[in-house]
Amino acid sequence: MRAILISALLALASPFAHAAGDAGAGAQKAKPCAACHGADFSTPISADIPLLAGQYEDYLARALADYKSGARKNPIMGGQAGALSPQDILDLAAYFAGLPGKLKVIPLHRLVQ
């Protein structure tokens, strides 16, 4: 019983626990992002700019939320994320995560030997 209560409280504490992103809305909101991250969000203008297409949705949402709060520092992204609502963040994360991309997942058995 105690474990169920703790699990429920942790789920409620997450800012993204009950919200879902709308990839269609995210596609419209992502247009300014293409200036740096590339039209396909997989070919950025510089090697130090991350690929967004195909990235994990929860990672993207956390990164944008951290830029917005200042927990993650980057003057350009801080300015861009500062104007985003929580729903904007979820929409963008859903859109980028659903795109085909160049990101690769290394199987765990290759990492642990």
Descriptive terms for the model:
113 residues; single chain; Cytochrome Bc1 Complex, Chain D, domain 2; globular; 7 helices; mainly alpha
Task: Walk me through the structure.
The chain has 113 residues and is mainly α. The chain has one domain: Orthogonal Bundle (Cytochrome Bc1 Complex, Chain D, domain 2). It is 54% helix and 0% strand. It contains seven helices and no strands. About 5% of the residues have low confidence.
| Broad CATH class | Mainly Alpha
Into which percentage range does the β-strand content fall? under 5%
How far is the first residue's CA from the last residue's CA? 39 Å
How would a crystallographer describe the biggest sheet? none
Task: Please sum up the structure shown.
By secondary structure, the chain is an all-alpha fold. The chain has helices spanning 2-13, 23-29, 34-37, 57-69, 75-82, 86-98, 108-111.
Topology, please?
Blueprint: H1 2-13, H2 23-29, H3 34-37, H4 57-69, H5 75-82, H6 86-98, H7 108-111
